[in-house]
Amino acid sequence: EYEGDRNSEGQRHGFGKARLPNGDTYEGEYECGLRNGRGTYRFKNGALYTGNYLQNKKHGKGVFFYPDGSKYAGDWVHDQKQGYGEYVYANGDTYTGEWANNKRHGQGTYVYKDTGSKYVGCWVNGIQDGPAELIHLNHRFKGRFLSGKPLGHGKYIFDVGCDQHGEYIQPVQEKEEEEEEEEPSVPLEPIWKVSGITKLTPWSPHDEELLGP
């Protein structure tokens, strides 16, 4: 069903409202039969997108509300989250930063609602990877991450006034001869080895802003 403007060739063109065979609805701008410009698309499952379209695809600025209560507001390219945007997750966590191909990719800040901790740094294909800072309520860790875990040299900065230097080492898993092969081995957590403690290096909230995306 369609109700709205058409061009001389009878194509949907201008402003219109449509109900799709699957129960979804669209209200917004069309160009030569395709969703183009600003519009609102309501999915039968309760999801909703409001924003820009280019040739039937989400493209430009737009907000997507998911059925689980989560929400993404930001840039889209050909139906993919790409560019800069903020995602509020169903559990209250938030990510603000760069995206590519629907994944967190580039510089971004992830805030954990339960603990108030936040990760400020690099992401690769949705995973924490590269130089970053993990900020907790009374201390922070500055270093590098690989595949979501801290690895290599870094330091813990404590609000009481000292830095703890060291490195995260990936322990090697020793196999027992009797071990059953069917059991998949769970990778061991990196271990923190302290190399020394020093006085606090100067730090101000302004530095944190400079680290941001």
UniProtKB/TrEMBL annotation:
Annotated InterPro entries: MORN
Any GO BP: axoneme assembly
Top-level lineage group: Eukaryota
Compartments it resides in: Cytoplasm, Cytoskeleton, Flagellum axoneme
Comp. bias regions, Basic and acidic residues: 1-12
Primary location class: cytoplasm
Pfam short name (any one): MORN
Cellular component terms (Gene Ontology): motile cilium; nucleus
Keyword Repeat: yes
Annotated region described as Disordered, given as residue ranges: 1-20
SMART domains listed in its UniProt record: MORN
SUPFAM superfamilies linked: Histone H3 K4-specific methyltransferase SET7/9 N-terminal domain
Keyword annotations of the record: Cell projection, Cilium, Cytoplasm, Cytoskeleton, Flagellum, Meiosis, Repeat
Function text: Functions as part of axonemal radial spoke complexes that play an important part in the motility of sperm and cilia.
Protein name: Radial spoke head 1 homolog
Organism field: Cinclus mexicanus
Underlying gene: Rsph1
